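Dear Dr. H.,

I hope your travels went smoothly. While you were away I took the liberty of generating a structure for the chain from your last submission, since the lab meeting agenda had it listed for discussion. I wanted you to have the full record in hand beforehand rather than looking at slides cold. The sequence, exactly as received, is reproduced here:
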Amino acid sequence: MPKLGVNIDHVATLRQARGGKVPSPKLAASEAQKGGADGITLHLREDRRHIQDFDLGEVRKSCSLPLNLEMALHPEIIRIALNFRPEKICIVPERRQEVTTEGGLDAVKNEKILQRVIPQFKKKKIEVSLFIGPSLKQIEMARKTGADAIEIHTGHYANVHKGKHPAELLKIGKAAAFARSLGLLVNAGHGLDYENVSAICCIPGIHELNIGHSIVSRAVFVGMREAVREMKNLIRTSR
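The corresponding predicted structure, in token form, is as follows:
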């Protein structure tokens, strides 16, 4: 059964809409743990649109789950991540004009900087993942640069009409199988919700799902603990 990493970025988005201290990502992480989350994901963006630097330490204090820090290849963020030492990092592309991360990292284009940066994290025993599309070429590069894992961008699957889901699922399944054959852990995320997550769970070898917006949205009505519990139940029963 895939593990569930709960992304709490959009709890901070709601907080930043007005400023102040509420709602608290720290409390969201604690409630997610009580709901059965296996890990907490948060994205410290260069523009600090949601998660702030102080949130890292606060979330660390509030729960004992492994932390997965999403981050761009920006010198300041790299420095912060190396000092913070989360259990995992996921290297993602980042553009200021996007609402959320819109696509996968081009590992081929970023080969040189990845080969320079990844060993710094592995030296500190931090698991490194690359957030990439279901491309065999990108997966080969992830392995070449020394990443431990990939996170397959599932946005296209989540956005297409239901009639086209089989083609997208096949593409993700082939990518997952190829990555596993290279010894990479396979995670997945982006756009997954309570209606479309089950099919992804049925793909062999998916290690972890990172889900944020749909859980936070559901939490508005039922609370974070229950929203996470409902998602965990879907994952558990999907097979």
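Two observations you may find useful: The longest strand covers residues 127-132. Residues 165-181 form the longest helix (17 residues).

With kind regards,
E. W.
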